[in-house]
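To whoever is covering the structure queue this week,

Two jobs came back overnight. Logging them here so there's a record in the thread.

Job A:
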Amino acid sequence: MALLSLLVLSCCSSTQLSRTLEDMEDILSADELTTGDVINGLKEALVQGSTKAANQASALDGYFGNLEIRIPFPPEIVKVETTLRDIGLDREVDRFILSMNRAAERAAEKALPIFSSAIRSMTIEDAWGILKGEDDAATQYLQRTTSDQLRAEFQPVVKDALDTVNATKYYSDIIALYNALPLVKQKNPNLDEYVTVKAMDGLFVLMAREEARIREDPLARTTELMRRVFSAQD
């Protein structure tokens, strides 16, 4: 408790400090929680949420079968999709969209070890900010601490997967078909970057959904420690 108080003191005004310490004492006194209990309970929640998100995203149809995170035709070239569908090339466009989502599902397999490392590195300040933060504070923590590494790990996997599932070829064919049309502006955005970013975004959407469940629904708290920590916030 003394260590946590010192950490809070270093970053709060006197008014903020008084209010924060009162909140902290209320939570730690509930069911005789210790600072370690709070940190470990939050880590358990993060492990549960990130594992579920990564497993859902990396499953077959994890992206393609979920309208909330399905990766659509790149919006900056949506006119390409419209034009090609108008001339009867729906099958080619649909095949390309499916291949992008398959690439994201493969890349998502890399997420869990990265999330696990960030969770192990959580500090007392991180834990307190998550517990007293917004409904997606844990998701924001993972997004803040893992995005650079996720991007570095995802991009080569996405590139390889796009090649493996022929998305790169489909994309090249589609762009070539479009660019061959008369009076159109030439298009050629970076497909690897687009799919990488959308794959990451989808993961955090799933993570935020699971975090909200844990915060709102006692039945979603699958360990005794999680139940004790979050019941103090209910």
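Job B:
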Amino acid sequence: MTQISSDISKAIELLNKEEVVAIPTETVYGLAGNIYSEKAIRKIFEVKQRPLFNPLIVHIPSIDQLEKVAREFPIKAQRLAEAFWPGSLTLILPKRLNIPEIVTGGKDTVGVRIPNHPVTLSLLKQLSFPLAAPSANPFNRISPTSSDHVKAYFENTLPMVLEGGECKNGIESTIIGFENNEVILYRLGAISIEDIEKIIGKIQIRNTSETTPNAPGMLAKHYAPRTKMYLLDDVDEFIENNESKRIGVLRFQGKLKTTRFEHIEILSKSGDLKEAASKLYSTLHKLDSLNLDIIVAERFPDVGLGKSINDRLERAIK
């Protein structure tokens, strides 16, 4: 039976035994294991049912630990780390030879970040190894932002979920890589493109790959509820044309003209995209539990974190 617990010493004991433990971060909960233990890493892939070509993100407690996993640290990467670590930024860097290929999807690069969560930072500081930790959900399903989400997915499969409360950012980290001195965005996330570009100037976006992704979150289908879902500009018209269906609505702010729906969730009445992002997955979990025929999401403003929210919703409907 999966135990939800705040006992960091218990989590350390399990991780030292090459077990997998769910951990909290400021983005989403992750399935964590010792990066140097092939047994633990294989368990992560098996529990998630994740394809082995899809690389994992390595979590470290401080920037002075980076040299243990990365052999280079470009100037622009340093500037981003200074601005956003600890936090929701993953950097793709050339890996040390001792990082197992199963962690990196066979690539010679590794994704690294320092999470901004006191519980997991405390955990990492007490371990003798970094943790690989993809999101704690079955492959392609909605990411978890609470310990209860994780337990619902993996009851009797995981020994422990380390309790850390609700994830404050609510969507995954932004992933940045470096190719031929160019800065590449591989995954939109909890730090906006605009905030990245304030630090290092214009960046390129290459955030889709079906066969050899450089980073997590690049596959076309991801983050999806079980309920059939649509992403639309005109939610009212769709509802009027599907009046026989039990429809749940996911909306940024404001009211609908129509009243022909079963349930509506407004992510931010004040129009705050950060608040909307923090509530996105928890709200999708709620709608997915209501036995609806359809979930209809309204497309968000394509600015700031609205781009990241739209990215998640677009991948959820594929």
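Note for Job B: The chain has a mean pLDDT of 95.

Please reply-all if you pick these up so we don't duplicate work.
Q.
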